[in-house]
Sequence to fold (195 residues):
Amino acid sequence: MTVNFEGGAQDIPTYSLADLRACVERGDESSKEFFRRNFNGKVVILGEVQLTEDRKVTSKRFAAAPERPTVERCALPPPAATEFVARFVGSANVIKGVLADRLLRRPGCFAVRAEDIEIRPASGAGHAGTCRCTGTVIDVQFRGSASRVRVNVGDGAVLHVELTGGSAERIAPAIGAPVELSWPERALVPLRESA
Fold:
């Protein structure tokens, strides 16, 4: 691993070719302004975004938020994430129904990645701008340099937390330990519920 803060997917804006094509086909004044604002006088490189596993790893990943598309779109809405994809492909925690009402205080279906959740001993102290809940550790799976912790948050609901690295704050708690889970509001991804 390189110790520096250069590199990362957020340094170069990445656009959807499908969105750009739809923008050209629309051909109105706002589309022309979109291209002027984002591409006028700039070098454009066509390619694809590398998978996370194939990217050059730098220490910037510890200082930055999880990668999410940050550029504006012109014509098409962002692709809708579904509950099926979140569970099956991404193995994310899905929070919906009564659990969403209780933990998030709002209806809907949301995903939060296991690595976006922080775990600490239950203390009752909250952090501004975070979602949080308490629970009990029911399982710890060690996976090389990472651990996956399963936490019962009540009503039969289980959230998964991914702990990576070997620092003191990343040491997995014991089974049966009361814990507090928290994650930033920006880590919630709205989902379309699967039928």
